[in-house]
Every structure is written in structure tokens, then in C-alpha cells.
Amino acid sequence: MKTLSGKILTMLGWKFVGEFPNVKKSIVIFAPHTAHIDAFYGKLGFNELGIKYLFLSKKELFFFPMNIVMKKFGSMAVRGVKGKNAILQVADILKNTDELNVVISPEGRIYKVNSWNKGFYYMAKKADVPIVVAFLDYGRKQLGIKGIIDDLSDYEKVEVQINEMYKDVKGKNPSDFVLADAN
Fold this sequence. Notes:
alpha/beta, 7 strands, globular
């Protein structure tokens, strides 16, 4: 690993695997997200990639003085922000930039959920960008990129691909990680 972030990951016993695809804009799903520390490892991993990115974080984290930390972290508040539709907001941001990869945890929470929030899919579809599948595997102490999904014509097909990529990945709290589920 070549960056300071990569060196920190190595010192902590983590290995970065996979290559970021040759895309300038994307929605990056990052899972599993079962503990607060996942954000720290994710930040280190995305710094190691050397790409331009923006994390989407729940609005509840944007209170003073935490809002300053979150903005420095590279986060933008979403979900329930008054007068804002996150899907349209992210699609507009992506359409009006030359390079940006928007990172979102589709589980939406660090505790077990019954299904994923499909907003990531609609963001990618509306912005006409691919979905990059990033992961954090505590079982193997690996983080990185699993692949890219270009065909967004059918959510259920996308979901099958996502589930296949994440099927053997273990979160910090494995019982809290649930694969995507078409409802």
C-alpha cells in the first residue's frame, strides 16, 4: 500500500484487495456496515484508492461540533433533510461534476435491518452512473472492491449480483449483516 492511509491499514493488519474500475463517476455501495469503526476503515480504504469521493451519512450526525468533523471526513447529510430529496440531490451533484464517486451504505444503519434502502440504485439510475461494490470483511481482514454493475435495467438482477458479491463477507458484527432483499 502506497499512501499513509494504506500504511495505517497494513499496521492494523488489513489488506486492500481489488481495483477501482476505470470510471470517473459512480455510486459506491459499502457493506457490511455493522459498527461505527467501519467508517474509519472505509475512509482509509478510499484514501488509498486515490479517487474523488463523497460519503453520504445520516443527518443525525451533523450536529455542532460533530458537523465540522463530518464535513472534514468528506460526508454530506442525507435522509430526512428538510426540503431535500437525496436521490435527486445526489443525481444532480453527479450530473454537474466531472469526477465524483458517492459512497453509501445501503443498509442505512449499523444494526440489523430487514432490507436495504434502494436509494443507492435509484441514485445510480437517475445519474446514469454504474454501481461499484466495495466491501469490508472482518473475517479475512480485507477491504476493497468486489466489482462493478453497469446494467441497471432491473433492480432484482442488480440485487442478485450484489448478493453474490457479498455472500461470504463478514461484518464486525456478523449477525447484523443482512444481504439485499427484493421487496
